[in-house]
From TrEMBL:
Protein's recorded name: N-acetyltransferase
UniProt keyword list: Plasmid
SUPFAM superfamilies associated with the record: Acyl-CoA N-acyltransferases (Nat)
Length: 196
């Protein structure tokens, strides 16, 4: 294992290769060239001015993720539904578990990344940050995030809004990241040509 400290104090390490489970990518892209071979993804990212942090999501987080998602389902559907068809109102706990397992495997394989926003004790999941290969032309990564309903418009959401672009610039090897729902509307993003 290799560890380094980024300017955000993020401990980063190589994912053990024995945990990489091959799968078909969820997005059409040249995934093998998406990230440098020696890139190591951050595994702990503190959110400044809060007691929260980001870390890669795991299947084991389902008990925290499911109530967070379904408790904010209507608003999340308005944001992500047209693009991703997620989260539908009938999503079950088991479907969420399978989805988180897929995310965990994609992270291990460096195909795409889902970071959970957690409290210090990791007893509550309060949102997520997604970092994906581009589905649409004009960027080399697509980044978006959400918080649960009771944090929408809060200081926590504003702290995340400030952190994410700074973190991506500092710790990720992208030249043209696109922030969906921030620097482009989801509707305008959907109108862009697909990468392939």
């Amino acid at each position: 294992m290799r560890t380094v400290l980024s300017k955000f104090g993020c401990v980063r390490r190589d994912a053990p290769s024995d945990r990489i489970i091959p799968r078909q990518p969820a997005v059409a892209s040249g995934l093998m060239s998406w990230l440098p071979d020696d890139f190591v993804h951050p595994v702990y990212v503190p959110v400044p001015d809060t007691a929260l942090h980001l870390r890669p999501i795991r299947e084991a987080d389902t008990a925290l993720d499911y109530p967070a998602v379904m408790g904010s389902q209507e608003r999340l559907w308005e944001i992500f539904g047209p693009a991703w068809g997620w989260p539908n109102e009938t999503m079950t706990y088991e479907e969420d578990r399978i989805d988180l397992l897929r995310h965990e495997r994609e992270i291990a394989a460096h195909q795409s990344f889902n970071y959970a926003l957690l409290n210090e004790e990791e007893t509550a999941l309060l949102g997520c940050v997604y970092i994906d290969p581009p589905e649409r032309t004009g960027s080399d990564a697509e980044v978006c995030w959400w918080v649960v309903d009771n944090l929408a418009g809060s200081e926590v959401e504003r702290a995340l809004d400030v952190l994410v672009p700074q973190w991506i610039t500092a710790d990720w090897p992208f030249q043209q990241p696109r922030y969906l729902g921030r620097d482009i509307t989801w509707q305008d993003w959907l109108a862009l040509p697909r990468t392939s």
